[in-house]
Design goal:
With about 650 residues, the chain is of the alpha+beta class. The protein is about 15% helix and about 35% strand. The two termini are about 45 Å apart.
């Protein structure tokens, strides 16, 4: 793979002195801050070419097409100035469809434009086939629904008007080479702001199922269907937001049975089927303690059968069913699962005859790597690493732990330790954002966590009540308790680590982003003697302000969500808001904020800073005008980490 690109591999140096203020390893920060060089990779239907999204030295995302046989570059496609490749897929053996993104004004991160670009393998015959720049008489934002792998030069897209507050979603069949379109009709579900409407096609390319949200009905989930392309749509399922849902994933070969994930009859997400002939839903398999996701087989470029289930509880596990047809595909994936223990394996693409598959393998301890699997030879060959400059041997290792809270609830979390250190360590308590529906997983490598552990800190990521992945009951336990029992779960995890001898009780700080930023500050408010310093990154600090500013409150569905999960009264919201409780803080605070954050607007950071300054409380400040909800530019993250490590070093370093 040497002729794909040249890159410099930096040495990862481990800080020699735990938590030392002056011991910041710049090379380590730069390696973790650098965006992945290889983002995604897919094989052509005939297996002759690979298409990959790669980054240039300036950070621009382009599409590179290579020969499978010798890995030689066939073409490189770059957008216009400030334009990036967001996603892509093979329309047929000779043509690739690209979703475009654009850097806008003060925003540092590229944003999707809704344009679809079609190109030949050789990089020529470029055509904008859909989207605002396509030249259509109606300006519409487009996205790919189905690439129709068995039909050359055609795909199905959805589109909607960006100028309508409640637009209908329209389906169109499109010629990949010319952009010529044939309408397939409109869906009866509208694309309300803050919601996601999805469409499922059967194996004949007919839109048969659609899902949406009804904000006027407190965010009820709706599933509609029809028997064929000429029939009227009719509603078959409807669920209240807290009573679960059925999310369709794919049609089985009979074109009448839909496989999906559901929790409307179980606590955790389960694998279910829905029979469109009888309107009957059946739970196929469930786990009492954690969500399941289906493992599927692929035939002729499409999902053909659910052959197993994957889940994460104490490790990443895959189980394969016995009563299945495609035992060969199951055997293949089972073998790969045994070869890559406790890692996530994903099939990104396959040839039409399944002779070759492109896989990604990754975990919290292993950066993503792309592989090519030859199903006939049963041989696996490495293609390239997403971040080839990261040395796997020197990445601090993350493990899963569990503990009991003060009220007897079992909570899991991740613990990352510095290399060759496991006792009496300084700790960073690092809660995740969200908070609901999100959990820290063994499948995801966190650069934040690895940077801190590389510099001598133990890092604890608690999956407190309210987190996703463990069922509705566990998730809903966090409602209205953002600043109380959810915070207590984090504290109980810290005290568990102290009791185990892993953590030095006198050297503990908190750090988080978004809700995690809120939780970092709120933890130090509830436990002023425990935390010696706090870092809040793009954090929510005034719960009442969430109803007044930010993109969540701009939609009816967002307001419904806030009414459901936040404390019910203004007085209760203020009681759980850091800006109204800074008098309880003892720890110095470091606030980091992006000026273009629309999820948590900068006013949150300004209010907390002003409240702290009014009390002459120790506060440090970092503000980046062009960044949004999390920093995008590598140099900004390097600067952020440098300042954070200096801050931590001053407060809990030796």
């Amino acid at each position: 793979m040497r002729n794909i690109a040249k890159f410099t591999v930096g040495m990862l140096l481990i800080a020699a002195s735990v938590g030392a203020e002056a011991n910041v390893d710049s090379a380590n920060l730069q390696n973790y801050a650098k965006h992945a060089q290889f983002i995604n990779m897919k094989i052509s239907p005939d297996g002759k070419h690979l298409a990959a999204t790669t980054r240039t030295e300036t950070g621009a995302i382009r599409l590179t097409i290579l020969n499978v046989s010798n890995h030689e570059i066939v073409s490189i496609t770059e957008g216009k100035e400030s334009e990036a490749v967001a996603d892509f897929g093979w329309a047929d053996n000779e043509r690739v469809i690209i979703s475009l993104a654009q850097e806008y004004g003060a925003y540092d991160a590229p944003m999707a434009t809704g344009d679809l670009l079609s190109i030949n393998v050789n990089g020529k015959s470029k055509t904008i086939i859909a989207g605002p720049r396509s030249g259509d008489s109606r300006i519409r934002v487009a996205r790919i629904i189905d690439l129709l792998p068995e039909i050359d030069d055609e795909l199905i897209i959805s589109s909607f008007s960006p100028f309508s507050e409640e637009p209908y979603l329209e389906l169109q069949r499109v010629k990949a080479s010319s952009g010529r379109k044939q309408s397939m009709g409109k869906l009866p579900l509208r694309v309300y702001k803050g919601t996601n409407t999805s469409v499922l096609l059967d194996h004949n390319g007919i839109a048969r199922l659609a899902t949406g949200i009804a904000p006027d009905k407190n965010n009820q989930s709706i599933v509609v269907t029809r028997d064929n392309k000429d029939d009227e749509w009719h509603e078959v399922l409807r669920f209240d937001s807290d009573s679960g849902s059925f999310t369709p994933l794919t049609f089985l070969a009979d074109n009448s049975t839909v496989i999906g994930i559901s929790d409307n009859t179980t606590d955790t997400l389960s694998i279910s089927s829905f029979d469109l002939k009888t309107n009957k839903q059946t739970v196929k398999v469930t786990h009492p303690n954690t969500d399941l996701m289906p493992v599927v087989s692929i035939n002729n470029g499409k999902v053909s059968e659910v052959i197993g289930a994957s889940y994460e509880l104490d490790s990443i596990e895959n189980v394969f069913f016995e009563d299945i047809t495609d035992t060969g595909f199951a055997s293949l994936l089972s073998s790969l699962s045994n070869s890559f223990k406790n890692q996530t394996i994903k099939v990104t693409s396959s040839t039409l005859d399944n002779a070759k598959l492109v896989l990604t393998v990754s975990s919290t301890n292993n950066p993503k790597q792309f592989y090519l699997f030859d199903t006939k030879k049963r041989s696996l060959s490495a293609i390239v690493k997403a971040k080839p400059w990261l040395s796997q041997e020197e990445i601090p290792q993350t493990t899963l732990i569990s503990y009991k809270t003060r009220d007897g609830l079992e909570v899991r979390g991740l613990l990352t330790l510095p290399v060759n250190a496991d006792k009496n360590l300084p700790l960073i308590m690092h809660p995740h954002g969200g908070p609901h529906g999100i959990r820290d997983s063994l499948s995801t490598l966190s650069s934040d966590v690895k940077v801190l552990a590389s510099h001598g800190y133990a890092v604890f990521q608690p999956n407190f009540r309210g987190s996703g992945g463990y069922g509705k009951k566990f998730l809903q336990m966090g409602y209205q308790s953002w600043g109380t029992s959810m915070i207590d779960d984090m504290t109980d995890g810290v005290r568990y680590l102290i009791k185990q001898g892993v953590v030095d009780e006198g050297r503990i700080c908190s750090y988080g982003a978004s809700y995690g930023g809120y939780a970092a500050v709120q933890s130090a408010i509830r436990e002023p003697e425990l935390y010696k310093c706090v870092v809040g990154f793009v954090g929510v600090y005034d719960l009442q302000l969430m109803f007044e500013e930010g993109d969540i409150s701009e939609s009816s569905s967002g307001l419904n969500y806030l009414e459901n999960v936040l404390p019910k009264t203004k007085a209760e919201r203020e009681a759980q808001s850091p800006v109204h409780n800074v008098d309880k803080l003892k720890a110095p605070v470091f606030i980091i904020q992006g000026g273009q954050d629309v999820r948590v607007p900068e006013e949150h950071a300004f209010r907390l800073r002003d409240a702290l300054k009014k009390r002459n409380h120790s506060v440090e400040w970092m503000y980046k005008k062009g960044e949004g909800h999390g920093f995008y530019k590598p140099e900004h993250n390097v600067e952020r980490w440098e300042k954070m490590l200096t801050f931590f070093g001053k407060n809990i370093g030796k």
